[in-house]
Specification:
The chain is mostly helical. It has four domains: 1-148; 215-296, Ribosomal Protein S8, Chain: A, domain 1 (2-Layer Sandwich); 310-428, Hypothetical protein af1432; 440-510, Cation efflux protein, cytoplasmic domain (Alpha-Beta Plaits). Helix content is 72%, strand content 7%. The chain has a three-stranded antiparallel beta sheet with strand order 1-3-2. β2 and β3 form a beta hairpin. α9 (357-366) packs across α12 (414-428). The protein is elongated and about 210 Å long. The relative contact order is 0.03. The model is unreliable at 192-207 (pLDDT under 50).
Length: 519
């Protein structure tokens, strides 16, 4: 019994010990796991803290590096600024040195000029002293001769000397007067032109700037004027012309210096009168439509002129400007017809000389092209036309022929000479510019007669269709200074006694020929 109890007790103890071991083992394992987890957390936190410390260190290092870099850049920029300042200072000093050198060179040049002038003056003084000595010697001789003269001989000698001195003084006064006239001629010329225009422009302008329009009855005049003049004002504004409605029965006048605008207004007015509906809206509509028709008409006229002259292809801009010349006149002569005449004359002369006929006709046809826009562009029509032709890629031969046909620029080729000649032939032929053959011949004769009446004139020829008169004088009777005075007197007499368009050039020729023989 006791043994069994002991055995049971031992067994109980063994079971309890096993249970206790198992319990302590589980507890130890749990504590170990907890310890491992805590150790792992500590390690993780240590790693995180280490990474944070590293990042902070890196950031501080970058900040410090950036700061150092900024300081270095500022220092470098300051050094660069100092260098630039020094460079500017060096440049200013170099410029100052250069200016001083230039000033010294200029001063040296001035000193050299002064020395040259002084040397020249000394030479002149020596020459004048020699001349004075010579004159004194001549005077002594003359006085010796005079002492031996009679009273009558002395008077004649004195009068001869006085005449020479008066002639010299007269020439000096004339030269001085001419200089004064040249200085004031432009202003005086404007006054003369303005006065002349006021005296003669009215009748001539009315012939070339006014178009008349026939109307069925005078009631139409009221519709043209409109209520309180609104229709006529609308028409004048739209067409750019002046409309004259006066007491003349059955006629309304349209006035404008631009021929294209005047013709557009005339056609528009005819359409409005025929339609019968005349009000501002209708007026603007008709004027717009007529303007478009006129553009087509101008192009057609230009193309026909090109075909008539047979010059080949032409820039569309030049074709249009040629068409505009149909509505431009010069001294009553239609400029397009004048250009066609000049083209044909150029071609004929070129054929006689064995030159390019088509090129010559091209020069003649385009020589007055500038007149189609000379009222819109500043400058004379030769320069304006040459500029337009150049921009339209015309040959330089044609450009020079246009620019030089009034001798404004030098003539570079024979075609320029032919163009100027053809222009003069067409413009100055009898009947071209409202002049009869009889009056034309009379004017040429009068020019020659005026020049021939002066003493010392051998012959006189009126050339260039009366635009120039050439006077040949006797060199033994007419001196150089007297020639200037004679040319001026002839020109003044022509102005007073003749009436002519444009200007007459007086060219006086004085030639001395000396002939000798070698035997």
């Amino acid at each position: 019994m006791d043994m069994e109890m002991w055995i049971g007790a031992a067994a109980g103890l063994a079971v309890g010990a096993g249970a206790a071991f198992a319990f302590f083992r589980r507890k130890t394992a749990a504590e170990q796991a907890t310890t491992e987890r805590e150790a792992s957390g500590i390690v993780d936190r240590a790693n995180q803290e280490a990474e944070r410390i590293v990042r902070d260190a890196e950031l501080r290092g970058r900040d410090e590096a950036l700061g150092i870099r900024e300081k270095q850049e500022k220092k470098l920029e300051s050094q660069r600024g100092e260098l630039r300042g020094r460079e500017r200072g060096h440049q200013k000093r170099e410029q100052a040195f250069a200016q001083r050198e230039l000033a010294l060179e200029k001063r040296q040049g001035m000193l050299q000029d002064v020395e040259d002038r002084a040397a020249k003056r000394q030479s002149e003084l020596r020459s004048k002293q020699t001349e004075i000595d010579s004159l004194l010697e001549q005077r002594r001789e003359q006085l010796a001769e005079t002492a031996a003269m009679t009273e009558e001989q002395a008077k004649r000698a004195l009068l001869a000397d006085i005449r020479v001195e008066i002639a010299d003084e007269e020439e000096r006064l004339i030269a001085k007067s001419e200089e004064l006239i040249r200085q004031t001629s432009e202003e005086r010329a404007r006054d003369i032109v303005a006065t002349s225009i006021q005296r003669i422009a009215a009748s001539h302008a009315s012939e070339i700037t006014v178009s008349s329009i026939d109307i069925p009855n005078d009631d139409v005049k009221g519709r043209i004027i409109g209520r309180e003049g609104r229709n006529i004002r609308a028409f004048e504004k739209a067409a750019g012309v002046d409309v004259i409605v006066d007491d003349t029965p059955g006629v309304v006048l349209v006035s404008a210096f631009d021929g294209v605008r005047r013709e557009t207004a005339r056609r528009s007015m005819v359409k409005l009168v025929k339609d019968g509906r005349i009000h501002p809206a209708k007026i603007e509509e008709v004027v717009r439509a007529t303007s478009a028709e006129m553009e087509d008409n101008i192009n057609d006229v230009g193309k026909r002129a090109v075909l008539d002259a047979n010059i080949g292809r032409l820039h569309p801009k030049l074709v249009h400007l040629l068409g505009r010349l149909k509505y431009r006149t010069s001294y009553g002569q239609n400029v397009l017809q004048h250009s066609l005449e000049a083209a044909h004359v150029c071609g004929l002369m070129a054929a006689e000389l064995g030159l390019d006929e088509r090129l010559a006709r091209r020069c003649g046809l385009l020589h007055d092209i500038g007149k189609s826009i000379d009222h819109e562009v500043e400058g004379g029509h030769p320069a304006v036309g040459a500029d337009v032709a150049r921009r339209c890629s015309e040959d330089q031969i044609v450009v020079n022929a246009i620019a030089a046909h009034h001798n404004d620029v030098p003539m570079e080729t024979v075609y320029s000479v032919l163009t100027a000649g053809a222009d003069a032939v067409s413009a100055s032929r009898p009947g071209a510019r409202r002049d009869t053959l009889e009056r034309y011949i009379q004017r040429l004769q009068r020019l020659e007669e005026i020049a021939a009446r002066y003493e010392g004139v051998d012959t006189a020829y009126a050339i260039q269709a009366g635009r120039e008169i050439r006077v040949i004088v006797n060199p033994n009777k007419i001196g150089d200074r007297t020639a200037q005075r004679l040319a001026r007197e002839i020109a003044k007499t022509v102005e007073e006694e003749l009436t002519y368009p444009g200007e007459v050039k007086v060219t006086l020729l004085r030639e001395t020929r000396v002939t000798d023989y070698a035997r």
